[in-house]
Amino acid sequence: MNSNEAVRRSAELLRLFDDAGLPDNTRRLYGAQWRQFVDWCTARGSLPLPARPRLVVLYLVSIARERLAPSTLKAAGQAIAKAHELSGHAPPTGAPIVAGWRRRLVAGGAHAQQQAAPLAAEQIRQMVASIDDDLVDLRDRALLLAGYAGRLRRAELVRLDVADVRLVAGELELLVPARRIVLPPGHHPITCPVRAVCAWIEAAALPADGPLFVGINRWGQLGDRLSDRAVGLIVQARAREAGLPIKGISADSLHAGPPDDRRLL
After folding, report:
1. Rounded distance between C-alpha atoms, residue 13 and residue 7, angstroms
2. Rg (CA), the chain
3. Long-range contacts of residues 49-53, Cβ cutoff 8 Å, at least 24 apart
4. Which pairs with CB-CB distance under 8 Å and at least 24 residues apart come from 15-20?
5. For 6-60, what is each residue's pLDDT tens digit?
6. What's the rounded Cα separation, in Å, for the pair 171 and 224?
7. Element spanning 28, H or E
8. How far apart are CA 171 and CA 207, in angstroms?
9. Which residues lie below 8 Å from residue 140, measured CB to CB, with a gap of 6+?
C-alpha cells in the first residue's frame, strides 16, 4: 500500500461511525473511542481492522494503566466490536482472551477509581494560579473549574456541548444527562467557573452546535472532542505544574472531594 492509499484508508477508518445510524450520543461515544484505538494502532504500526484479539488486549491494558473509569474500558471494547460489525468482520472482543482480560481490568479499574485522591479547593486554586492565558490554558482552566465546581465526572465533562451551557442571571447552567447543574460565580476572578467557561468559549470562537472541550494542536488549531482519557492527563499535568504530588490524582479527583469545599473557590 502506497502512502496516499494509507492516508485514504486511515481517513475512512476514522469516519467509520459518521453514518452508522446510531443514536447521536452513542455515535459520538463510539466514534471517539474508535478514533483513539485507530490512532493507537497507527502509532504502533498495527492493523486496527480487522484487529487481532491480542492487540485488543494490549490496548485495553494500556487504558487500564491510566486508571480510567471502568466505563471507559467497556466503551472502548463496545466501540471496537461495533466497528468490526459495521465492516463485516467478526468482533475480536468475542475471543475468550479478550473477554477474560476485560473482566479483570474492569474489576481492577473499579477498585482503582475508588482510590482517586480528592482535590481540595486550595489545590484547585494552586493549579489554576499556575496556568497562563493562551488558548490551551483557557481551555484547561475552564475544564478544571467547571469539573470541580460541578462535581462532574470525566464522561460528563467530555460530553458537554456548547449548547448545553447557558448563562442565566450571572450563573452558569450545565445540562448533563438526566440533570441540570448550576454553577455560581466564584469569589475570586481567577477561580470563577463562570468567567473561565465563558472566556474559553469566546476565545476559541466555539460553534454553538459543537463540543465544549476540544483538543488543540501545537499551532493553536482546534480539533475533535476531548476524550475522557485526555481529561485525566490534563488534570495530572496541571497538578504537576502546580507542584502538587500527583500520586492518586486523576480526572476522578475533580468530583471526589467534599461538596462544601466548592464554596471556597
Report:
1. 10
2. 19
3. 49/13, 49/83, 49/84, 49/87, 49/89, 50/84, 50/87, 50/89, 50/90, 50/92, 51/80, 51/84, 51/92, 52/92, 53/92, 53/93, 53/95, 53/97, 53/98
4. 16/83, 16/86, 16/87, 17/79, 17/82, 17/83, 17/86, 20/82, 20/86
5. 445 555 676 778 777 788 777 877 887 888 888 888 878 888 989 999 999 999 8
6. 27
7. helix 24-44
8. 21
9. 131, 234, 238
Contact call for residues 165 and 201 (beta carbons, < 8 A): yes
Instruction: Kindly state the cell numbers that stand for 123.
Output: 489545590
| Residues 92-109: tens digit of each pLDDT | 999 999 988 888 877 765
Helix orientation angle between 228-241 and 121-129, rounded to the nearest 10 degrees: 80
Under DSSP, the state recorded for 213 is S
Rounded CA-CA distance 219/136 in Å is 11
